Automatic annotation (TrEMBL), chain B:
One Gene Ontology term, aspect cellular component: cytosol
Coiled coil: none
A biological process from GO: phenylacetate catabolic process
Annotated spans, Disordered: 1-25, 331-356
Top-level taxon in the UniProt lineage: Bacteria
The species this protein was found in: Streptomyces microflavus
Protein name: Phenylacetate-CoA oxygenase subunit PaaA
Compositional bias segments (type: Low complexity): 15-25
Alphabetical list of InterPro entries matching this protein: Aromatic_CoA_ox/epox, Ferritin-like, Ferritin-like_SF, PaaA, PaaA_PaaC
Gene (UniProt): paaA
Pfam families listed in its UniProt record: PaaA_PaaC
GO MF annotations, alphabetized: phenylacetyl-CoA 1,2-epoxidase activity
Lineage of origin: Bacteria, Bacillati, Actinomycetota, Actinomycetes, Kitasatosporales
Composition bias type Polar residues, residue spans: 338-347
TM stretches of this protein: none
Length: 238, 356
């Protein structure tokens, strides 16, 4: 069941990060949009975690080392451009992944077929903002470029095989996924008059680490906040 | 959440909304007198006033003030609840809370849009909020200290909001009334969710029950104050009632709210923190204790526990988002060809000049 955990934790953790924006967004429409994306992801997470066990036990009672999410999704929000860079990298990946899982006929086909529709909106939202920020003002251009660069090192991990997903006849071809992702992201970034960072990505030390339960320092703090209340009342129901 | 609350309706200092000028300001001009008569007749007949209809300036100003304060309450009201999104104790509760805070942002959008039909832009209203020249509901100047506060806000604050807002669905101004229909539907969900959250706590462990009781103890009196000062001290009420912007007095609505809450508290297994609450057979209503209006006035003056914090966070989000809004505007300017009908639209915009 490690595949359901990997996909579920990606959705759970990114949803939490996006939830941190509530009441802080640059414009009211984005308070609505970011909350909407967070809710979609939380819905996916609940379905996926429930395939493995009790959703709340899994979300609230696991230690940091037992989470299987990508390091990308646990990265702090930073400024709006930083959040949008994270959204671009992840939503394009998740969209392509779910498109493939939906037709692959494997265990996650039904879930992916349903989720792919909402993820298409997440992708569109991210791409539209990359265009606006990249091709907006000098300041927004600089911030968007900085966001793309800061998070680039975390993208390699998305193309590492996931146990229980890539090896179970899901029909996934990670190399094809990576090529398609790179072409799509490059296209958006270039249209936005930005440049995609060069240099190590797939080979960076981070690649594969989140899936093995090795996370970055901010993640522990995120979990401390997320789990504190639940853990303070053992056995209580809410 | 975030009702338009009576404290907003009655306490604003906006001079233009002074409820006297309708007739006096138009007395000299027979054409104006005729339009005023038509307006008064429409209100009397329970017809809706629409954006392009003629309306007295004081009516317009009262509506702008009330709708702006309602919109501001929605977006400031996101803060005390968003405070708990990252700590919600179950994924189900987290989803409910995120959806609720999202609804509030949506309500803010409807209401700012409704205010735009009176010729006042969202930017203008936000600037006034940030400058402290327009109010939001004082209830949001209280802190959410525990998870149970999320439930108490849903049950009591949204409950009071609904009591205030349902009559606004019949408000004489069309766009406001229609926005309220939609908002009230969502608010009643929020109220039930808050009640259900408290019920789970009340029936839970001893610690959970105590958390729920503590929250109700802290939110009960501020919720009663949401209906505004007693009728004899309420300055704008009379004219707003005549214009059918307001349909019931502060005290009537407060009494209605108490009568709804007493049996609900009993069903929750929680105690309302007022030893004087008892059924009055003769009146067919509950008696309840005296409200501490000194506290109300202090919070209104800016001395509540969170006044400074709420407005500072709002300003900060706005200022930190300025470069994003600038970028969106710059991008739109580069990539949109100006529509030909621009001028025509501007002419159709209702009474823009008159409200300046």
């Amino acid at each position: 069941m490690s595949a359901a955990l990997a996909l579920g934790d990606d959705a759970l953790v990114l949803s939490h990060r996006l939830g941190e924006w509530a009441g802080h967004a640059p414009v009211l429409e984005e308070d609505v949009a970011l909350a909407n994306i967070a809710l979609d992801l939380l819905g996916q997470a609940r379905v996926l975690l429930s395939l493995v066990g009790d959703e709340d036990e899994l979300a609230y009672l696991r230690e940091e080392r037992a989470f299987r999410n990508l390091q990308l999704v646990e990265q702090p929000n930073g400024d709006f451009a930083h959040t949008i860079a994270r959204q671009l990298y992840f939503s394009v990946y998740q969209h392509l992944l779910y498109e493939r899982l939906a037709v692959g006929g494997g265990e996650f086909a039904d879930l992916a077929a349903k989720a792919v529709k909402e993820v298409a909106y997440h992708r569109d939202h991210a791409e539209q903002w990359v265009l606006r920020l990249g091709d907006g003002t000098a300041e927004s251009h600089q911030r968007m470029q900085a966001g793309l660069e800061a998070l680039w090192r975390f993208t390699g991990e998305m193309f590492q095989p996931v146990e229980g997903l890539d090896d179970t006849g899901s029909g996934l071809d990670r190399q094809e996924l990576e090529r398609t992702w790179l072409a799509a992201v490059t296209g958006t970034v270039e249209r936005a008059t930005l440049t995609l960072p060069t240099g190590p990505r797939a080979g960076a030390w981070a690649a594969g680490a989140g899936r093995q339960g090795l996370h970055t320092e901010p993640f522990g703090r995120m979990l401390a906040e997320m789990q504190h209340l639940h853990r303070s009342h053992p056995g209580a129901s809410w | 959440m975030a009702a338009v609350t009576a404290d907003q309706k009655t306490q604003s200092t906006s001079g233009t909304a002074k409820a006297t000028g309708t007739v006096a300001g138009t007395a000299g001009d027979p054409a104006d007198a005729a339009r005023l008569a038509a307006f008064d007749a429409a209100v009397a007949a329970d017809d809706r006033i629409e954006p392009r209809d003629w309306m007295p300036e004081a009516y317009r100003a009262t509506l702008v003030r009330q709708m702006a304060q309602h919109a501001h309450s929605e977006i400031i009201g996101m803060q005390p609840e968003a405070n708990w999104i990252t700590r919600a104790p179950s994924l189900r509760r987290k989803a409910i809370l995120m959806a609720k805070v999202q609804d509030e942002a949506g309500h803010g959008l409807y209401l700012y849009s409704a205010a735009e039909t009176l010729g006042t832009s969202r930017e203008e209203l936000l600037d006034k909020l940030h400058a402290g020249r327009q109010r939001y509901s004082s209830i949001f100047n209280y802190p959410t200290l525990t998870w149970a506060d999320v439930g108490a806000i849903g049950w009591l604050v949204d409950g009071a909001a609904i009591t205030n807002q349902v009559p606004l669905c019949r408000c004489s101004y069309g766009p406001y009334a229609r926005a309220m229909v939609r908002i009230c539907k969502e608010e009643s969900f929020h109220q039930r969710q808050g009640y259900e959250l408290l019920l789970a706590l009340s029936r839970g462990t001893e610690a959970q029950h105590a958390m729920a009781q503590d929250a109700v103890d802290r939110w009960w009196w501020p919720s009663l104050m949401m209906f505004g000062p007693p009728d004899d001290a309420s300055s704008h009420s009379e004219q707003s009632m005549a214009w059918k912007i307001k349909r019931h007095s502060n005290d009537e609505l407060r009494q209605r709210f108490v009568d709804i809450c007493v049996p609900q508290a009993e069903a929750l297994g929680l105690t309302l923190p007022d030893p004087d609450i008892r059924w009055n057979e003769e009146r067919g209503q509950h008696d309840f204790g005296a409200i501490d209006w000194t506290e109300f006035q202090e919070v209104l003056k800016g001395n509540g526990p969170c006044n400074e914090q709420r407005i500072t966070q709002r300003r900060k989000a706005h200022e930190e988002g300025a470069w994003v809004r600038d970028a969106a505007a710059a991008y739109a300017a580069k990539h949109t060809t100006p529509p030909v009908q621009q001028t025509q639209h501007a002419q159709q915009a209702p009474h823009v000049e008159e409200t300046a």
